[in-house]
Amino acid sequence: MNNIGLKEDYTKVMEERLNAYLSSVQISYMNVRGYHWNIIGKQFFALHEKFEEIYNSLNEMADEIAERILMLEGKPLHSFSEYIKVSVIKERQNVNSAEDTVNALLEDTAKLLETEREILSLASDNDDEGTASLMSGFIGEQEKMIWMFNALLK
């Protein structure tokens, strides 16, 4: 058992999963930051502001994920070269129209949501309430964002 009462073999697996998720969040952060900087068109003001809100949220998520990895006695990844290797989200460049940025954001958020649900399931199966609770909160936020941006596209 580790310091917080979880099995060490489980925490090693969860550390790997959380680091992959952290990597995806960090790549998503940079993508959204690029949308914020480069958005053009009639929806510029609304999306420029919304993208700033989203990348700030992703930044906070990354910090919470890294702290959870540390609580599990692991080591969070902290370089983009490492992130790129394990992220399910790929870097996006030259995306600047409202429709393209929103579609890219929806695609990447769906990948984050899928990963969150996988981590939640693993955490729940191993009585890891701290990780499960963290993922539950993220899932609620991601589902709401997907709903709102899909409404924008209709």
Automatic annotation (TrEMBL):
Record family assignment: Belongs to the Dps family.
Domain Ferritin/DPS: 16-153
Coiled coil: 48-108
PANTHER family (UniProt xref): GENERAL STRESS PROTEIN 20U
GO molecular function, one term: oxidoreductase activity, acting on metal ions
Protein name: DNA starvation/stationary phase protection protein
Cleaved signal peptide residues: none
Record InterPro entries: DPS_DNA-bd, DPS_DNA-bd_CS, Ferritin-like, Ferritin-like_SF, Ferritin_DPS_dom
Swiss-Prot/TrEMBL keywords: Coiled coil
Gene3D superfamilies, per database record: 1.20.1260.10
